[in-house]
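Quiz preparation item.
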């Protein structure tokens, strides 16, 4: 990136899925690769039974029974469909939501409010992502890659 003195921000296209209800935490705990009970925000993977990736996720806990899943724009419906198929008797609602996402490079993801900072170009974002070793769906990772092959644990 250029010599930016303030924080760098970029709008990030995302799909958003709400998982809510009395069984939401337990349901997500069983469905994804990370411990959703341990943090208010975590990165996780939604995997097939054979450990193939369906989608990378960022999971944000909004309340004890309400979670927001963020994923790549074209993966929102496949994530929702997979979760609906696996829901069985779990008392959860799984619905899409609309938000705007902003990434503060190297720090956090902010929803529905543009953070202060200098907006970077897509090329600068891509260079930062590669230099930071962050794989991107459709580039370094897809449904043919096992998480360990991509260094995702």
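Solution:
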């Amino acid at each position: 990136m250029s010599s930016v003195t303030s924080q760098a921000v970029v709008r990030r296209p995302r799909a958003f899925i709400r998982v809510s209800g009395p069984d939401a935490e337990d349901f997500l705990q069983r469905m994804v690769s990370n411990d959703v009970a341990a943090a208010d925000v975590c990165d996780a993977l939604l995997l097939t039974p054979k450990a193939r990736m369906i989608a990378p996720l960022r999971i944000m806990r909004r309340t004890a029974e309400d979670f927001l899943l963020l994923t790549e724009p074209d993966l929102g419906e496949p994530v929702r469909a997979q979760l609906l198929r696996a829901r069985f008797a779990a008392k959860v609602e799984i619905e899409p939501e609309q938000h705007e996402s902003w990434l503060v490079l190297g720090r956090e993801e902010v929803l529905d409010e543009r953070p202060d900072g200098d907006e970077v170009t897509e090329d600068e974002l891509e260079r930062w992502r590669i230099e930071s070793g962050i794989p991107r769906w459709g580039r370094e990772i897809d449904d043919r890659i096992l998480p360990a092959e991509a260094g995702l644990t």
